[in-house]
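Why does residue order matter? Because the sequence determines the fold. Keep that principle in mind as you read this record.
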Amino acid sequence: MTELYLQPQWPAPSHIKAYTTLRSSGVSTLDEHNRIDFDRLTKLLALPNKPIKIHQTHSTIAVPALAENQNKEADAVFSNQPNQVCLVTTADCLPVLITNREGSTVAAIHAGWRGLAAGIIPKTLQTLNLPGHDILAWLGPAISQPCYEVGPEVREQFIAQNPASEKAFITSSNARFLADLYAIARLQLGQIGVTHIYGGDYCTFSDKTRFFSFRGDGKILGSLATLIWIDNKE
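Structure:
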């Protein structure tokens, strides 16, 4: 049977529902418009409501999953209410899902290198106002370090903010570097006291059967949808 989505392997409460759709799901259109088929997505994952899909711009804006925020400029969506579906889309950038031990709050974060450098993860968690030791984080499918070459200016930006970021980069060729988005996210989560971190073992670039990849496909052919919500049926 064809695999259509991933589910985080993390100790979240049973009423927390979380998924990442795969290329085979047919949820994302294979064209330059990169639309999400909400009807297909709702049927596939038995969604309780239409997800709140934001307009992602590598910002540090986090908004609640409310109807008025549909297509608003933001890079994180959060909720503490049941059946409000938080959604981000990615095709090499890092999707991060957040909940707490009680499952009373959830968030979905879109974290490309620009968003990570700007601080989308700590700023979202600051908005949630949860103690770090109470947070569970899942790092979804993103481009892996061996496949992600960046210029020296990217590395320098992270190191200027935190010298420990240097370990997330290894020398490539022509004075360029291979960047580890997963390592950067773990470092930033750890700085705010989050130790329960899961996932981070995927590569969108090298696994073209399951994932979309902006760099690997050569253009935008589609995107992965990563979702989380609080289910009131459990």
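The helical segments are 38-45, 113-118, 120-128, 152-161, 181-191, 214-217.
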